[in-house]
Design a protein that fits this description.
Number of strands of chain B: 11
Number of helices of chain A: 0
Shape of chain B: globular
Strand content of chain A: over 45%
Helix content of chain B: under 10%
Oligomer: heterodimer
Number of helices of chain B: 0
Radius of gyration of chain A: 13 Å
Number of strands of chain A: 11
Order of helices and strands of chain A: EEEEEEEEEEE
Shape of chain A: globular
Largest sheet of chain B: 7 strands, mixed
Radius of gyration of chain B: 13 Å
Largest interface: A-B, 21 and 26 residues
Helix content of chain A: under 10%
């Protein structure tokens, strides 16, 4: 059974810092992993999708890596800004199921 | 613009009064799904559909129904809502599970 864990649960940093969010999954036979952003009370916005054949994906200041052998993915945010404040969720397909398994998220606050 | 549209965005209702939350996507996706999000429990799948007329239970299907008569629509039906169904609901669509697009959410309160 796929389980997805995210640490830390919450993170507060000053503006300008580079930071890393972690995501661990138990079933390494995944074919992709997705990172989302959620603003309070709002929907999820897809940030990055990493296919199993890739090791990383980049979008602007965001870089996500995937290491299937260790069951880990990281989301790197460069030069953080207050507008990056949100909850970040990772999700991986469940083993032999038709659903996404979500982590419980990392709540990020970037203060000026 | 590619999007998943849910309605209503906010709903307050009373116990036992049937309600429907609509979900529509314009990306011709075969896969659609409903999730609920609760503090401390994260996102949990309620029902999903791999294609028209094909639906299946997720992790927390009790108290919910769905239908998939058309590819673009996947309504969530609460026949007799109860207070424990107070939650934030999300509809999602995708090409199988290769990428998921989410609606903006429906905040439901059952009193």
């Amino acid at each position: 059974k796929q389980e997805v864990t995210q640490i830390p649960a919450a993170l507060s940093v000053p503006e300008g810092e580079n930071l890393v969010l972690n995501c661990s999954f138990t079933d390494s036979a995944i074919y992709n992993l997705q990172w989302f952003r959620q603003d309070p009370g709002k929907g999820l916005t897809s940030l990055l999708l990493i296919q199993s054949s890739q090791r990383e994906q980049t979008s602007g200041r965001l870089n996500a890596s995937l290491d299937k052998s260790s069951g880990r993915s990281t989301l790197y945010i460069a030069a953080s800004q207050p507008g990056d404040s949100a909850t970040y969720l990772c999700a991986a397909p469940g083993y032999n199921t038709d659903k996404l398994i979500f982590g419980t998220g990392t709540r990020l606050q970037v203060f000026p | 613009e590619a999007q998943v549209t849910q309605n209503p965005r906010y709903l307050i209702t009373v116990t036992g009064k049937k309600l429907t939350v609509t979900c529509s996507q314009n990306m011709n996706h075969e896969y659609m799904s409903w999730y609920r999000q609760d503090p401390g429990l994260g996102l949990r799948q309620i029902y999903y559909s791999m294609n028209v007329e094909v639906t299946d239970k997720g992790d927390v299907p009790e108290g919910y129904k769905v239908s998939r008569k058309e590819k673009r629509n996947f309504p969530l039906i609460l026949e007799s809502p109860s207070p424990n169904q107070t939650s934030l609901y999300f509809c999602a669509s995708g090409v199988e599970l290769r990428e998921a697009f989410f609606g903006q959410g429906t905040r439901l309160t059952v009193v």
